[in-house]
Amino acid sequence: MTRLLLVLTLLLSLSSCGSVDVGRYAGEQPRLDLQHFFSQPVKAWGMFQKRSGEVAKRFEVNIDSRREGNDLILDERFLYSDGTRQRRIWTLTPDGPNSWRGRAGDVVGEARGEVAGNTLHWRYRLNLAVDDSTYEMSMDDWMYLMDEDTLINRTSMSKFGVEVGQVTLFFRRQSGGATP
Which CATH number applies to 40-173? Predict the structure, then answer.
């Protein structure tokens, strides 16, 4: 029993060491303004890596956005390396200074995000379809604005507190017209 308590205590202390407060990035430039960044079409490229580091899937995303009152609507169209397609429509709502709430069809409840400096920290639960099954995953997104047109995203995906993989995604604002 003592050994079990020691292992649990060690695991809890290790998990608490990895948490960074988004406020740490408050002074970083350029400042991230989600409404400005998504004020024109965005193209993104990404990959999902298993816990082992193996790349399991690559994908491209075309994102069109629009404003509806205070809401920012992001219409994401995914094309995966295996030829499959997916669409996710996010509704992002300001929730006080530097805070956002988000909803999408495959998001469980609401996503919660906080912006500080050039960074957005976004957390939510996602129903992830894999083959003929659906898994509820915890998503921990960190987005960093590199320059006016480039945003980098790193997401840790976990189940029952254990990381199962990571998503890396690069966003680039497109000049002119809507994305295909």
Answer: 2.40.128.20
